[in-house]
Write a structure and sequence with these properties.
Layout (H helix, E strand, L loop, with lengths): L8 H21 L7 H8 L6 H8 L4 H17 L8 E2 L6 E2 H17 L6 H10 L2 H9 L4 H17 L1
Antiparallel strand pairs: 1-2
């Protein structure tokens, strides 16, 4: 029987220290002043655990297409007078759009409940399961449903946890 990996809070802190600055960079690259849920996913694509990237591959799509589609969506929204990053939340140095905070809170709750590490695939899983509009629209533009992305993300998490 495979042993379940124990939670490593230091590892989670290291993941967050990579995730949030990378999400800020992704948002600014897209012309958005603060990170949204989709920028957390983009940042997760480069996390060392590799689960977010592998979830896209498992679903049969190119993970780099997600970044391109998100950037195109934000450029289109901005060009059409749409709002980008509507409401900034947070105190201190961490300021994100409401969707990023909502998704990340649910990820943290899930990680605690499941007693696992904070893996990048959790950001895909929660965004897909909760129907976050922008990430789910990008999934569909890539030719996969949010449900397919959730299944792929869960499979990656389970593989990391159970070996």
């Amino acid at each position: 029987m495979a042993r379940k990996k124990r939670r490593n809070r230091i590892g989670d802190i290291r993941t967050m220290n990579r995730l949030f600055p990378a999400a800020d960079v992704a948002a600014r690259s897209a012309g958005v002043p603060v990170a949204c849920a989709e920028h957390l996913i983009i940042a997760a694509l480069d996390l060392p655990d590799g689960t977010a990237r592998r979830a896209f591959i498992r679903a049969g799509v190119n993970p780099d297409d997600f970044t391109r589609i998100i950037n195109d969506m934000h450029a289109s929204s901005e060009g059409n007078g749409g709002s980008v990053g509507p409401e900034v939340k947070g105190r201190g140095p961490l300021k994100t759009e409401e969707s990023a905070q909502r998704v990340f809170k649910q990820v943290v709750d899930m990680v605690r409940t499941e007693r696992t590490q904070l893996y990048g695939a959790y950001l895909i899983l929660v965004s897909a399961e909760t129907g976050e509009p922008t990430p789910c629209s990008a999934f569909e533009a890539m030719g996969v449903t949010p449900d397919q992305m959730a299944v792929a993300a869960r499979a990656e998490i389970d593989e990391m946890v159970n070996g």
